[in-house]
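Reviewers of the previous submission asked for a worked example of the structure-prediction workflow described in the proposal, so we include one complete record here. The input consisted solely of the amino acid sequence. No template or homolog information was supplied to the procedure at any stage.
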Amino acid sequence: MRWYPKGYGGTRRDPDQVKRDGWHDEGVLAVSIDDHRLTWPERELVRQLGEKLYGPRSDNREAANG
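From that input alone, the workflow returned the following structure tokens.
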């Protein structure tokens, strides 16, 4: 019989489950602006919130795509 500390052993949660649990348990929302489930206005809102809270992104992908 092996003993594993909490969080070690067993099955790993997939990233979406971790994000879902964070939202339900802690009220923390982790969103990628590249998430295909979001519409353009939703992605733009996420981008604007990120820039307001944390400043502009260092890797400006818009300039690389344009």
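Residues 15 and 48 are 23 Å apart (CA to CA). We consider this example representative of the routine output the project will generate in years two and three.
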